[in-house]
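Example record

The entry below shows one chain as it appears in the dataset: sequence first, then structure tokens.
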Amino acid sequence: MAPGFIRQAAAALFEYDTGKVLRIHSLKVGIAQRLIQLLVIAYKKGYQDFDDAEGAVIVKLKGVCLTDVPNGTLKGSRVWDVADYAKPAQENNAFFIMTNAIVTPYQMQDTCPEDPSEGSCVQDEDCEGPSPVTGSGIRTGICVNSTKQGVKTCQLYAWCPVENDNPAGGKNTPLINVHNFTVYIRNNVIFRKFNVRRRNIRDSRIKGHLSSCNYNASRPEDLCPIFSVGFILNETEPDPRQQELMLAKGAIIKITITWDCNFDYNPNACLPKYQFLRLDSKSALDYPGYNFRYAEYYRVGSVDMRTLYKAYGLRFIIVVDGRAGQFHIVPLTMNLGSGLALLGLTTVVCDFIVLYVLKKRQIFHEMKFVDVDGDDAFEPIYKNSNYGTINVMDGKS
């Protein structure tokens, strides 16, 4: 006689499983089945057609401040308005607010000593060869006395005097009132597929509405697109010490405007959401923050001159993201097929409830699984199982 495991393997080889429909009248199982089906359909949103938002942004800055710096390159009193601290004046989906600066005035093209921080020299031979990329001009090959007593540097042909790269007023920012500046961000979006346009401004004919409103995160339905710089800084970096460093050394902040819309309801209920994220590394030791240089040119007699600014400040990058959905029969029909696989999860869960949770699970076991022995069955092995067995030769069970 063949070993037991060989008989079992042979019996399994010559078996055939066919599906059996067992209709169970149960309120609990019926509710569970319909709930799971609804959850699957809602999760896939297979009944909706979708479209991505296309948008444009217009930014306007407001704010004036008076600075009185006792020393440094910005020494003295000065009034700063938008034309002074917003450089450049227009950018695509971005803007910049200068909060600190190193100013080198009255530069002209001439020969002058290099800044001592770029290196020193002892003799003319030390200044021969190509000029370094990080230098301020072209070396003449002569070693001369620098602006720092007792230190010699290479003479340059450059815009003279060269920049003195020291923060104005130490770590303090000259624009101390920058928190009170306001940013007006107007955003218009369109969902082409649904021919729906939305904007982040309330349609109001009341004159002066925008001049009196300020964005309130707890009331997004007010649709006020005016933000104070202080609010944005608090949302981005709550630590006051980090805010001070951001204003002194500069920072990069991302503003995300998200439109998540369901046009099955009132399109006017689609409101924008704002998120603020700092992109630069606050732990960077080399070249922290954000800065760039620009110059203002003028002419004195026949001499071309300029004032060089190394501007530190907050650079804001605006990203518009959006997606809308609306009922449409075509995607519903197309997604029915792909949804059948997930809908199969309903059967798995309901079978588990019926066979392992309900009180009458043993009865459901016997009704669902039945062994049928044909007249040519190969040594059936489930004779002692809890499931019913039918012999098709005599019809007894």
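Notes for this example: The longest strand covers residues 303-327. The first helix runs from residue 4 to 13.
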